[in-house]
Fold Berberine/berberine-like domain-containing protein.
Amino acid sequence: MVIAGIDPNPQNAGEITRCTKGYWEAVHPYSADGSYVNFMMDDGDDNRLKATYGNNYDRLVALKAKYDPTNFFCVNQNLKPLHSSVDAPRDASGF
């Protein structure tokens, strides 16, 4: 399920946000756990990312550490490699 609260009028942002979050809270108990990774915002909450990947999270982090230890591929909902000193993109483009 994808919920989008959109209005071209910025004055409606508060009401749209309230309605969208309220709708999500009402239907979430009836939905599957997790999220669609490509629609997640980078809110800094690694727990949401861990919940989304579930039992695969640790395996994916290990693969990231093996094949991308410098975190070159980081313009996404980033899995940070284990023991990496690179936590952020190099610039706005990720390079």
Remarks:
- The chain has one domain: 17-84.
- Residues 13-27 form the longest helix (15 residues).
- Residues 17-84 form one domain.
- The helical segments are 13-27, 46-53, 57-67.
